[in-house]
Amino acid sequence: xxxxxxxxxxxxxxxxxxxxxxxxxxxxxxxxxxxxxxxxxxxxxxxxxxxxxxxxxxxxxxxxxxxxxxxxxxxxxxxxxxxxxxxxxxxxxxxxxxxxxxxxxxxxxxxxxxxxxxxxxxxxxxxxxxxxxxxxxxxxxxxxxxxxxxxxxxxxxxxxxxxxxxxxxxxxxxxxxxxxxxxxxxxxxxxxxxxxxxxxxxxxxxxxxxxxxxxxxxxxxxxxxxxxxxxxxxxxxxxxxxxxxxxxxxxxxxxxxxxxxxxxxxxxxxxxxxxxxxxxxxxxxxxxxxxxxxxxxxxxxxxxxxxxxxxxxxxxxxxxxxxxxxxxxxxxxxxxxxxxxxxxxxxxxxxxxxxxxxxxxxxxxxxxxxxxxxxxxxxxxxxxxxxxxxxxxxxxxxxxxxxxxxxxxxxxxxxxxxxxxxxxxxxxxxxxxxxxxxxxxxxxxxxxxxxxxxxxxxxxxxxxx
Length: 465
Known about the structure:
Blueprint: H1 6-13, H2 16-25, H3 32-43, H4 49-55, H5 65-83, H6 89-105, H7 109-125, H8 129-146, H9 151-179, H10 194-210, H11 214-229, H12 232-237, H13 239-255, H14 259-274, H15 281-301, H16 307-320, H17 327-343, H18 347-358, H19 367-384, H20 387-404, H21 409-421, H22 426-442, H23 447-450, H24 455-464
Helix pairs in contact: 1-5, 2-5, 6-7, 6-8, 7-8, 8-9, 9-10, 10-11, 11-13, 13-14, 13-15, 14-15, 15-16, 15-17, 17-18, 17-19, 18-19, 19-20, 21-22, 22-24
């Protein structure tokens, strides 16, 4: 994202209610130009500053467009702060701290004390240690100005601040250890904060996986999830973190092919997610992870009769939150859809999703998924008997493969087979597929390739059905 595009993406991220709140709170005739600029940017599908300047060429503000855009951005952020004043306990506490600062400079120390008492209780209940430190700092300042000789109380508050900072330091150490385990080690001290305990447990989980202690790794996550569920208010406040732990367990269950248990947990986490009132970008990311896991289970089980429901659910969710869905997830979902519809023998629908990938690909895309979309494209046209299109597509994929590496034996074998046998009779194809399987047994396709497209199962089905 270029700096000149920041306002565009901010406006595009706004919900209908957020836009309405902004416009209602922008008052006065001097704001008309800002609203016109807001509407013009909102109407664009891609940001084009040249067109904006052309549209407002008769307006005086266009010569200071960068300044006006910055002002509009800050007005939108100001509106979002008021609209989302209760978005989280963190936001509520920050507002209280701002109120205390204003009251302090107005000399309203008694009101400061009552506000800080309320904030301190809330910060402790929701384990907001960093903000608790700031609340305690204001508590010390207020007490010091009201009772300058009460050194014992001031000392007691300062010692509590020091204790609060220990938990914050541990949180930073845990973050560093999770980012780079080789360079940063974990403290052996017991974590008091549930967030800190979560980071510590995830670090332990990864170490257990690397040492192949899978059962203990699974139990570690299960126990952590149970502990989160004992604190429903904390779970609701920090739901994306709880969601992330659950997704890690689901990923493990898929890896171990424990699909029934995974489906039960998917239903449970979806039920909990429905109760979350405020949908954040972090929440959406975890929901997308969940959908990817769910699609992988459907694909692996090949019990595809209910897959249409989950695909419709995903399409609805991504449409409702399209500005917050990263391109890599859109690509991944399209590939999953294409694969699933291919397995369902709905080849035209499969090709539709393949075309979504191939017609919209960029250099930033995961090139592995794009490459196997090309392969799936070949199989789809082969199944439909589209010989001319198939041969053209084979030339295309050959050029793509050569761009990145040499064509290996199994690739040459498959490409030659598809081109040669696409117009064979059913009986001829059965014999050809048997022969192809024998050749691939001598020169097997690598396992990691079969995770993208299970060529072996497809070949076997062509002569056994």
